[in-house]
């Protein structure tokens, strides 16, 4: 199983949109995919209509349940979040190897899936460290604006620390430029600047209203608006991701 964490400590950069639609794109291509909602706001779970009652990723950290996801379709499963996640960091402060709880849980189901996609909250706290410790690769969605770019450096510093002490094989698969508008000069300059320092996906995710609307229908972009720019962009991104593992 290949585990990919979708990470940025800034909110509103399309982390959840990317997790949902990359997961759905991989599932459409016949891959067995586990989506893990690691954000206390539970936006990924809500975007796909998964209820927050029952077993959740919070229970995994507390030891009350394992990875027992909800099925969206035969190839796409979701391990939902719960609002209690926001309290988890304090609850686990004295636990031994608390940074590895998610890794141990995912190891139990690694033969059941081709990919696990982890949607992280906008934080550099314990949950994000768990994701970085458990994953093979990281995708960093980045809104093509100057201030959004400034946060990438502090995030990559965290990645370096995790790589040094907890997960020596973790790597940045790529920075994903989101909410892109080629008519805006600033968008172009940010994309150019970031590519000088980090690997950047060739696929840019363009601004598209269908991507914002799809969660209200509790659908991924391929079911909600299969002919939209958003569907085209995330289909291209899915193929680009798969090409990196060939």
List the helices and strands and how they pair.
Blueprint: E1 2-6, H1 15-28, E2 33-38, H2 43-47, H3 57-62, E3 70-73, E4 76-79, H4 88-91, H5 101-107, E5 115-120, H6 126-134, E6 137-143, H7 146-165, E7 171-178, H8 185-195, H9 209-213, H10 221-224, H11 229-243
Parallel strand pairs: 1-5, 1-6, 2-4, 2-5, 6-7
Antiparallel strand pairs: 3-4
Helix pairs in contact: 1-11, 5-6
Write up this protein.
- The chain is globular.
- 41% of the residues lie in helices and 16% in strands.
- With 246 residues, it is α/β, with parallel strands linked by helices.
- A hairpin with a 2-residue loop joins strand 3 and strand 4.
Salient structural properties:
246 residues, alpha/beta, Rossmann fold, 7-stranded mixed β-sheet, 11 helices, 41% helix
Task: Give a summary of the structure in a few sentences.
Helix content is 41%, strand content 16%. The protein has 11 helices and 7 strands.
Identify the CATH homologous superfamily: P-loop containing nucleotide triphosphate hydrolases
- How many beta-strand runs? 7
Mean pLDDT, all residues:
90
CATH architectural group: 3-Layer(aba) Sandwich
Broad structural category: alpha/beta
Within the CATH hierarchy, at the fold level, what is the topology? Rossmann fold
Strand order of the largest sheet: 3-4-2-5-1-6-7
Beta-strand content: 15-25%
The profile of the biggest β sheet is: 7 strands, mixed
Radius of gyration: 17 Å
| General shape | globular
* Low-pLDDT runs: none
């Amino acid at each position: 199983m290949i585990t990919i964490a979708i990470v940025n400590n800034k909110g509103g950069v399309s982390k959840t949109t990317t997790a949902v639609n990359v997961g759905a794109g991989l599932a459409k291509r016949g891959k067995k995919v586990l989506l893990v909602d690691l954000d206390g706001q539970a936006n990924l779970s809500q975007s796909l209509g998964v209820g927050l009652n029952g077993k959740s990723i919070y229970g995994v950290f507390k030891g009350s349940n394992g990875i027992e996801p909800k099925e969206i379709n035969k190839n796409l499963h979701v391990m939902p979040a719960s609002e209690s996640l926001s309290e988890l960091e304090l609850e686990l402060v004295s636990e031994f190897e608390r940074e590895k709880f998610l890794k141990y849980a995912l190891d139990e189901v690694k033969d059941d899936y081709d990919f696990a996609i982890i949607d992280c909250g906008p934080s550099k706290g314990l949950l994000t460290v768990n994701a970085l410790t458990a994953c093979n690769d990281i995708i960093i969605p980045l809104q093509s604006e100057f201030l959004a770019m400034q946060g990438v450096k502090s995030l990559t510093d965290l990645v370096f620390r995790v790589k040094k002490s907890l997960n020596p094989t973790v790597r940045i698969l790529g920075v994903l430029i989101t909410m892109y508008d080629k008519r805006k000069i600033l968008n172009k300059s940010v994309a150019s600047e970031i590519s000088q320092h980090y690997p950047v996906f060739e696929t840019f995710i363009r601004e598209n209203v269908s991507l914002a609307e799809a969660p209200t229908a509790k659908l991924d972009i391929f079911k909600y608006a299969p002919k939209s720019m958003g569907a085209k962009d995330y289909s291209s991104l899915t193929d680009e991701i798969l090409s990196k593992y060939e």
